[in-house]
């Protein structure tokens, strides 16, 4: 069984310079897991906060489960991030000193069927950095097209 991606935050790669990545677990309710199995999640505005030596995933929208009834969850509730203590302490220190952000890149089911989240330690890009990245992408695409046309394929 391969990894099943639930949601990806493509905008994060455009808005942030990714410095480090880590795979973490999430503390979820049953209706949230069922909703995620249907692929109903949005990471666009999501970020992580550290409070009382714990990490929380904020502003990640998980739609209510269709057949949830009265036992449904709040779509925007903060969800506890499950990560190792050493890693948590290290990331908390980096956030406080360097002014970095923690953003979710993707949400997926791993091989064992657990919901995992790929978090990134990131630094916000300035407008000129975003433009430079786009220019580099366009130049790479044109170069690949030129190589392909040369080969006759």
From TrEMBL:
Listed transmembrane segments: none
Gene Ontology CC terms: cytosol
Keywords: Cytoplasm, RNA-binding
SUPFAM superfamilies linked to this entry: Small protein B (SmpB) (SSF74982)
A molecular function (GO) term: RNA binding
InterPro entries: SmpB, SsrA-bd_prot
GO BP annotations listed: trans-translation; trans-translation-dependent protein tagging
Subcellular location: Cytoplasm
rRNA-binding in keyword set: no
Pfam families reported for this sequence: SmpB
Function text: Required for rescue of stalled ribosomes mediated by trans-translation. Binds to transfer-messenger RNA (tmRNA), required for stable association of tmRNA with ribosomes. tmRNA and SmpB together mimic tRNA shape, replacing the anticodon stem-loop with SmpB. tmRNA is encoded by the ssrA gene; the 2 termini fold to resemble tRNA(Ala) and it encodes a 'tag peptide', a short internal open reading frame. During trans-translation Ala-aminoacylated tmRNA acts like a tRNA, entering the A-site of stalled ribosomes, displacing the stalled mRNA.
HAMAP family: SmpB
Similarity comment: Belongs to the SmpB family.
Protein name: SsrA-binding protein
Native organism: Acanthopleuribacter pedis
Lineage: Bacteria, Pseudomonadati, Acidobacteriota, Holophagae, Acanthopleuribacterales
């Amino acid at each position: 069984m391969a990894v099943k991606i639930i949601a990806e935050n493509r905008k994060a790669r455009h808005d942030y310079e990714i410095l480090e990545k880590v795979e973490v677990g999430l503390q979820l309710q049953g209706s949230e897991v069922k909703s995620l199995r249907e692929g109903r999640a949005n990471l666009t505005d999501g970020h992580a906060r550290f409070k009382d030596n714990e990490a929380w995933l904020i502003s990640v929208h998980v739609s209510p489960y269709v057949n949830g009834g009265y036992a449904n969850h709040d779509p925007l509730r903060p969800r506890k991030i499950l990560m190792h203590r050493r890693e948590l302490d290290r990331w908390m220190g980096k956030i406080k000193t360097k002014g970095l952000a923690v953003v979710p890149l993707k949400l997926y089911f791993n091989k064992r069927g657990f919901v995992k989240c790929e978090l990134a330690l990131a630094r916000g890009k300035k407008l000129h950095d975003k433009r430079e990245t786009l220019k580099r992408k366009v130049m790479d695409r044109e170069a690949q097209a030129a190589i392909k046309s040369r080969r006759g394929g």
